[in-house]
Amino acid sequence: RQEAKTKGKNWFDLPATKLTDSVRHDLDLIRMRSALDTKRFYKKNETEAYPKYFQIGTVVDSPYEGKTGRLINKERKRTMVDELLADVEFKQSAKKRYKNILMSNPKLAAKIKRENRKMKKLKKKRK
After folding, report:
1. DSSP calls for the chain
2. Which residues form the Fcf2 pre-rRNA processing C-terminal domain (predicted)?
3. pLDDT score for 44
4. Going by C-beta distance under 8 Å and a sequence separation of 6 or more, which residues neighbour residue 61?
5. Closest of 50, 57, 52, 60 to residue 25, by C-alpha
6. 47-95, pLDDT tens digit by residue?
7. CB–CB of 50/17 below 8 Å?
8. Calculated CA dihedral for residues 45, 17, 21, 70, nearest 10 degrees
9. Are 24 and 50 in contact (CB under 8 A)?
10. Whole-model pTM?
11. Which of 48, 49, 58, 55 is nearest to 18 (CA)?
């Protein structure tokens, strides 16, 4: 049996999207959104598999908002992962949570410290 290339007429012939690495990273980020924003509640995902039929869109700025509400080209990123990595507030909250986890678990902190030392040694050897 041949696989369907679209979802069907009831879904307006939604095409099957090719899964690239960047798309997989974005889908993983959406799955882990409850860990990223701990103050909000999100329903748990029922499936572990990636969806076959989906589309990714681009947010278009409204011409009625004026220039103050828009992002400049320098601030726009290609993927959601890149946007999060560029977000200063997200970085600060992630560092704070990471620090709290290490403070609450000294064994884990020691293990990570050892692994970081090993990584530094490996980097020096490669140079």
Report:
1. -PPPSB--GGGTTPBBPP--HHHHHHHHHHHTHHHH-TTS--PPPS-SSPPSB---------TTS-STTSPPTTT--SSHHHHHHH-HHHHHHHHHHHHHHHHH-HHHHHHHHHHHHHHHHHHHHH-
2. 4-97
3. 87
4. 69, 70, 71
5. 50
6. 889 999 999 988 888 888 777 778 788 888 888 899 999 999 999 999 9
7. no
8. -80
9. yes
10. 0.70
11. 55
CB 5 within 8 A of CB 18: no
Kindly calculate the radius of gyration of the chain based on its CA atoms and give it in whole angstroms. Answer: 21
In the block, tokens 């609450």 appear at 104
Tokens for 1? Answer: 């049996």
Match 């598999």 to its residue by tokens.
49
